[in-house]
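Help needed: design a sequence for this.
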């Protein structure tokens, strides 16, 4: 599965008819670290952490030509 997430094809928020969204004051599912995204393609906190780590110290197959750590070292 992508980056260790077990659910990547759906979000973990409550369904309201045909609309799947995170409603105000409603907790998302308990196992939200297993989800790669929330509805409408918003990444979860766990997915944002993976993206941030890859941007900071990722390899050229994820960040090109340099990652943020390499960029700062050049300053």
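Sure. Designed sequence:
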């Amino acid at each position: 599965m992508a980056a260790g997430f077990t659910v990547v094809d759906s979000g973990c928020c409550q369904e309201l008819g045909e609309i799947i969204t995170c409603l105000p004051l409603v907790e998302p599912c308990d196992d939200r670290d297993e989800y790669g995204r929330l509805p409408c393609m918003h990444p979860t906190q766990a997915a944002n952490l993976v993206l941030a780590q890859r941007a900071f110290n990722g390899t050229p197959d994820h960040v090109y030509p340099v990652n943020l750590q390499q960029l700062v070292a050049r300053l």
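The chain has a mean pLDDT of 78.
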